[in-house]
Amino acid sequence: MKLETEEKPRRDHDFRLVPAAVAGWAATLAGLQLGWWAATAVGAVAVIGAVVLLARGRSRYVGVGGALLLVGLIAAVPTALRIHDAASDPLGAAAARGVTATLRVEISERPRPIHQAGYADQQAGTRSVAIPARVTTATADGQPVESTGRVLLLAPVAGWSGLLPGQEATTSGRLLPARGGELTAAVLSVRAAPADVGSAPWWQRAAAALRNSLHSLCAVLPEEPAGLLPGLVLGDTSALPQRVESEFTASGLTHLMAVSGGNLVIIGGAVLLLCRLVRAGPRFSAAAAGTCLAGFLVLVGPEPSVVRAGVMGGIGLLALALGRRGSALPALAFAVCVLVAWDPTMAANFGFALSVLATAGLVLLAPRWADSLVRRGVPPGYAEGLAVPLAAFVVTAPVIAGMAGTVSLVSVVTNVLAAPVVAPVTVLGVLATVVGPWWPGAGQVLVHLADPEARWLITVARHGARAPGAALSWPGGWWGGLCAAALLVVVVVAARFRRLRLLVAIGLVVVLLTVVPAKVLAPGWPPDGWAMVECDVGQGDAVVLAMAEPGRAVVVDTGPEPGPVDECLRRLGVERVPLLVLSHLHADHIGGLASVFDGRAVGAIAVGPGRAPAWAWQSVSGEARRRGVPLMQLSEGQRLEWPGLSLDVLGPRYATTRSPALQDGTMINNSSVVLRADTSAGRVLLTGDVELAAQADLLAEGVDLRADVLKVPHHGSRYSLPQFLAAVRPRTALISVGAGNGYGHPSKSTVDVLGTMGVLVTRTDVDGDTAVLPAGSGPAVARRGEPRGPPR
């Protein structure tokens, strides 16, 4: 959208509806967080303020007072009652007891996929969905329950992922307490498929057909752009690789995959431009744009930011049809008032807050900042390109900081680089969605035209995420957001005064030199002469063993998902991998296999005798065929040598005779390849996930297990024999484990045993990437200190 860059004439913004919007939002948010009484109290204060304004009798206060009075009354009575009814819903009391319930529900929104990292024999991906629904009838513990409240269904993908808003279904499961700050009465944990499923409205079926058509058309593209394009156009990230999603988050571009007002502006603007080209009148143009926007809202679903933008767009189109010049700020304030009254849960929705604040920043700040840059000699186009992302970043940074606990340092740059392709890829994607079902050939042409734009966005996000210190840690929650907001207000206000600008500049320099981690200014990783690195890949394993020649290393295991192991190898400067060893075929050891090949030459993939689980073996062998690399099996007693590194295969000591379908997790763990590596820092024992039986076999065979460094088996689980640990007699023990994992790793008993032996214990959930390097009296340890967060 073209920003005004002329100094004159400038129309003052109409703020009359802003107090009402702030009061309605604040009252609803207070009610959700503190209780219905808080909404009543804030609403009452708004009513009192409105009465005071109206009592003054001045015309300029009448509009403000009237809007404030209406919103205050709505917040104090209807909204407070809805919050009270949700809090006292009988299903909430049943959920507190954890009883089993049978519900007849009406689906409110499209199922939202829940991504889960791979672990053990569970493949990474989407295994469950979250579905907001409204209860029509309910029984708990066999007794009827009077409830028509909202519930959240946590259900398996099978049978549930294809449900559409408006469909009814019957299901059973265990009730769980709902999260606070919402109008949800309870959460239902569902295990079985839905029963007695009703039909969806015809418009929902049509929208689903269009969405499925876009996914089919995108199948002609490579995996990453094929998964990204539906996310950019429809907010559908179900096919998006987890690595790309993480990179968009780290680089501050995640908002592009959440359909918001920007999408509606692009689509509405394209329709209005087309109408202008054919010389259509304002009423026809408004009707055409309104019809397209309504169809787009049905297509993408009722997301808070989309509904907010839809209300604003409807107001603007109505003004166009009536021949009146609309104002964005009153439209935004009116949208906030209407939406938080219609659906109070929007008041606590981060996406809604980000959308409203970003729009306010673009309306209030971006034009002024663009004007200021133009006056200082910056060309208008560049001034707008800088002002828009900077304004959006400033007003949304506090919310993002409180929500994510991080502050992106590259967000403005990445958004400036991404901005030129957002509109074209959106228009092309929407056209492909609409045209595809009727003319597949044209749809594929449009998808191919959108492919370069999608690849550019992936490139920008990937390089932004790899920038040193792309995201800095920040206190999370409400206090973190308030602190960030206060800091930004101080900086922006102080910058308006000439005498304070120098102090602000000096303060920012001091912060950069003292608060920003030293790694951003002078990254000290990797340490010189490193011999081994335990990569922090979350809840999984990935070990890198250096050779004498820089840039060459053997990799053992690849973690649970693509991305982290690639980032680790890039930090280490590894360009050639003569051998990639997979200790066993559990998901948390093979999930990142494909990303090891990114920009690197891999000589061969080595595995042990295990072929279970079957899906994992098919994935590994298929990847080897696609990459054209040999797949070799390691055997006990085998020795592999390179300059500066040698590997001896110590196990497994047996090969199971059971078919892959009959092997359980313990059998697969015990089939792990056990390696003894001689490195420049000493001897290293790599144990995969061997458990008690395999450890006992190694002890019984009298294998020389002594090593200076031990990669602790199975993420430090309790299945480690003290005798096994004593036989290794390590000086240093490395535990690869994910922060906040739900498996209890590492076990306190295992850590205590190592502690009593005087072993230095490191953990990737605390220390991040951990390097072992030679020292005079034995191996030394260096920690990168950036542990990955808990699995999502």
UniProtKB/TrEMBL annotation:
It is a multi-pass membrane protein. The chain crosses the membrane at residues 34-54, 61-81, 256-277, 284-302, 322-342, 349-370, 390-410, 417-439, 476-495, 502-522. Residues 539-739 form the Metallo-beta-lactamase domain. It is found in: Cell membrane. Residues 770-792 are annotated as: Disordered. Residues 783-792 have a biased composition (Basic and acidic residues). It holds the Pfam family Competence. The keyword Coiled coil does not apply. It comes from the Bacteria. Keywords: Cell membrane, Membrane, Transmembrane, Transmembrane helix. The keyword Secreted does not apply. Gene3D superfamilies: Ribonuclease Z/Hydroxyacylglutathione hydrolase-like. NCBIfam families: ComEC_N-term. This is ComEC/Rec2 family competence protein. It comes from Amycolatopsis halotolerans. The lineage of its organism: Bacteria, Bacillati, Actinomycetota, Actinomycetes, Pseudonocardiales.
